[in-house]
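Problem: given the chain below (190 residues), write out its structure.
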Amino acid sequence: MFKALIAALGLAVSVSAVAAPSITDVVFQQQQIAIMAEAHVQGLDWKVGDQNNYSIDMGFIKGTMDMTVRSTGAEGIWMDQNMDLGFAGKQKVETLLDPNTGEVKKMIVNGKEQAPPKQNIEVIDMKEDKITVPAGTFECIHVRIKDKDNNQEINVWMNPSAIPLSGMLKTIQPSQFGNVNVLLKSFKKN
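Solution.
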């Protein structure tokens, strides 16, 4: 399984590709890295109602993110992602995913369709680890990833077999506003 994760993390990941990514772009990128890894290893076996709840902390900006599977069907899996970043605003992202590859087939941001962006990443290191987040303590995989376009390092802790919707437990990624820290607060797996 761990060797397959290396291959999956090396795949192109759909994220927002702008010169200075927004907070939501960074969070979406972190989520997509974990989704692609899960899909490559075992396919996305998500159920309607699966849900993850996260805290987002960037120092002076704090917020929440909730991810929920809205529907599954022939066209793919629809996942809703709602972010509330306090004074920095709210954002709703509706994503249609291919359950076999994790590829973003369609993305609607605040009611407007947006082209799924691309990313250029490589795995620097991957190791088994154990992490405690507000949702509990989990065995996991800690992956260090280099964003080649921005020459930045992303750290992802994940456990796709225990946590639905990407298995993301914690991520740390630089942004124009400082490090974006995302922690799993709770989850529901149907």
